[in-house]
Design brief:
The protein is of the alpha+beta class and 304 residues long. It folds into three domains: 171 residues, Jelly Rolls, CATH 2.60.120.280; 43 residues; 62 residues, Orthogonal Bundle (Arc Repressor Mutant, subunit A), CATH 1.10.10.60. It has 13 helices and seven strands. Strands 1, 2, 3, 4, 5, 6 and 7 form a seven-stranded antiparallel sheet that branches. The longest helix has 27 residues.
C-alpha cells in the first residue's frame, strides 16, 4: 500500500479559486496542522476537535465554529461511533461579494467596523449556537450531498444564504461586545474575544477538570478580573456556567444515546454518580432515569 502523506500545498490550492464542501463520517480522522480559508465547522453524532495553538474547540450537534482565513489549525475525530464532519470553505472573493452585495449600506457598515475595515473579511472566531434558519440551510446541504442530486449553482445559492445569515450573526455578536464596559471599542472587542475563549473552552472541554486558574490562563486575564468580567458578560459565574453546560450535555445524552447513567455521568465531567443525580434532579425536577424514560428520542434522520 502506498504511504499517505499530507501535502499542505496541494490541500491549500483547492480553496483559493472555489468554495469547497468537505463532508464524511469517521470514527477516527486526524488532519495535521494546516492553513484554512474562512470556514464554518459542523459535527453531527459526536464531537470533532479543532486545535489552534493552545486553544481546543469541541464542535458538536447544534453548534458550529467559525475559523477566519489564514488560521492555522489541526483537527481530530476519535470516537467509538462514527461522527459526521461537515466543513464549508469560502473563497475570499465569494465572501467579499456576499458582504458588499448584501450589506453595503452606511447603517450596517457603521455598526460593524470589524468587517468593514479589514481585508479579507474577518469574523469573531468562536463557537456559535446553530439557530433554526442556519440548521435548515445545513440540512439542505447534507441532503443534497447524500442524494448526489446537487449542482454547483444550487449549492452556491445555499452557501450565499449561509454566509449572509452568518454576517447577520456577526452584527449580533458585535452589539454584544459593545455591552461590555470599557471606554475604548478596541478594548471591548479584545475583552469580548478573550471571554469567548474561556466560554468556548468550557463548552468544548466540560468533561475535563476545569478551574478558575485554567480559565484565567485561557483568557489571558488575571483570575479576579476574569471572574468579574465573565459574570458580567454571561450573567453567571464560570463555575455555574460549567455546571449548566455539563447538565445540558448529560440531558442530551440521556435523550439520544444508549449509554448507561454512570457512563453519562463520567462523560459529562462528574466523578460522583450521587452528586450528578442530585444536581440533575435539582435542575430538571426528575431523576436521570425518569427523564430518559419520558424523553428518549428515536433517530429517524441520518446521513450516511
Amino acid at each position: 500500500m502506498d504511504d499517505f502523506r499530507f501535502n499542505n500545498r496541494q490541500w491549500n490550492r483547492q480553496f483559493v479559486e472555489q468554495n469547497v464542501i468537505l463532508n464524511g463520517k469517521f470514527s477516527y480522522l486526524y488532519y495535521p496542522e494546516h492553513w484554512t480559508t474562512l470556514s464554518l465547522k459542523f459535527a453531527f453524532g459526536g464531537s470533532e476537535q479543532y486545535i489552534l495553538g493552545n486553544m481546543k474547540y469541541g464542535v458538536q450537534d447544534n453548534m458550529y465554529l467559525i475559523l477566519n482565513r489564514d488560521s492555522i489549525y489541526q483537527s481530530l475525530i476519535d470516537s467509538d461511533n462514527p461522527v459526521e464532519s461537515l466543513t464549508l470553505n469560502f473563497t475570499a472573493k465569494f465572501v467579499e461579494d456576499v458582504f458588499y452585495s448584501s450589506f453595503n449600506n452606511d447603517e450596517y457598515l457603521l455598526d460593524f467596523p470589524e468587517v468593514r475595515d479589514k481585508y479579507p473579511v474577518n469574523f469573531f472566531q468562536k463557537l456559535y449556537a446553530a439557530d433554526d434558519v442556519l440548521s435548515t440551510y445545513i440540512n439542505n446541504i447534507r441532503l443534497a450531498v447524500k442524494s448526489n442530486t446537487y449542482d454547483t449553482d444550487t449549492l452556491n445559492e445555499i452557501l450565499h444564504g449561509i454566509l449572509e445569515h452568518t454576517f447577520r450573526s456577526q452584527l449580533t455578536a458585535s452589539k454584544k461586545a459593545d455591552e461590555l464596559k470599557s471606554v475604548k471599542r478596541s478594548t471591548r472587542i479584545e475583552l469580548f474575544n478573550r471571554l469567548n475563549k474561556a466560554k468556548d473552552y468550557i463548552e468544548s472541554n466540560y468533561n475535563e477538570a476545569i478551574d478558575l486558574d485554567k480559565l484565567s490562563r485561557v483568557s489571558s486575564l488575571c483570575p479576579h478580573h476574569f471572574l468579574r468580567k465573565f459574570k458580567s458578560y454571561t450573567g453567571v459565574s464560570p463555575h455555574q456556567f460549567l455546571k449548566s453546560v455539563r447538565l445540558e450535555k448529560a440531558r442530551i445524552m440521556l435523550e439520544s444515546t444508549d449509554s448507561s447513567i454512570t457512563e453519562i455521568c463520567l462523560n459529562s465531567g462528574y466523578e460522583s454518580l450521587s452528586s450528578f443525580s442530585f444536581l440533575f434532579k435539582k435542575t430538571y425536577k426528575t431523576s436521570p432515569e425518569s427523564y430518559r424514560k419520558t424523553h428518549r428520542k428515536k433517530v429517524n434522520f441520518q446521513i450516511m
